[in-house]
Amino acid sequence: MTTDPAGDPAAAGRPADAGLDPAEMLRMLREQQDAARDATEPDGRLLFGAWGLAWLVGYLALWSTARTGGLPAAWAGWVFAGCIVGAMAFTIVHSVTRTAGVRGVSARTGALYGWTWFLAFLALGVLLGAMGNAGASPEVMAIAANGFAALITGLLYIAGGLAFGESRMAAVGGWMLVTAGVAAFAGMPHTYLVMAVAGGGGFLAMAGVEHVLRVRRRTEGGGQGAR
Amino acid sequence: MARVPDDLDPVIHAPARLRVVASLAALDRGDELAFPRLRKLLDMTAGNLSTHLRKLEDAGYVQVTKTHEGRVPATYLALTEHGRTAFAEYQAALMDLLKGTR
């Protein structure tokens, strides 16, 4: 593609693409922009997919052991923690690698956004600790942990949708707020099942939607300005 | 099928520069891209890309920021508002050609 003889003053600035028609040129531009976005923006399918799997597997482990024993088994707690830490590590590595070399407004917004997640869940941990100290029963603790986790996730997805202009991200956030309410009322042990199916399933469904939209945009040729 | 005529914006109507502008237009407003990332994305040589960037900078389409990261010099590129407008107009002109209104 780099056939433009830049060093040749006679040819510089003249169209070297005499064989291209407007449709081909528009397609070339769109492909170039898609490639630029792929190289500089995180892939929503991968992020939704990672969190969907983490919630599905982690909360199913908690649910399956709480269903028989009343409370989740210790190993299930470790599986859950492993899933969350794994998804977190993947999100950080993927986002940092993709956005390396981009600086400016979106880099600052992204960093602030990432730290907000960290601080919000740190605060949740402290809050749950205080509730435990004040004598909250394991059932109350489980409802609070799941409900607040879904609440924070919902609010931060809506905030992310606003900050990055991604309406589908905000839609997932709205769904997570519904999940928070349902998970709270489901009570033990089904609160975990709600988190796995509605929460994890919600992320996975959105990963599927992202994929379909992307394939459709790139095969149909999409409109101009379509993301 | 109609050929693309020569009266389109000559600064960006050269495939290599068009690809540079299209890539930078994919960034959000207020963002800049490091030279090595752009070079890799376009698969151009550094010298070739620099030449095109200078032409785009001279036309006021691209803003080149030279800075240091630690002790290593770094160059960041962004499309100016002028460049964004030029790219939008170029795309609109192609669309018009496609619809046969030009």
UniProtKB/TrEMBL annotation, chain A:
UniProt superkingdom: Bacteria
Keywords in alphabetical order: Membrane, Transmembrane, Transmembrane helix
Spans through the membrane: 46-66, 72-93, 114-134, 140-162, 169-186, 192-209
Record protein name field: Uncharacterized protein
Protein's organism: Promicromonospora citrea
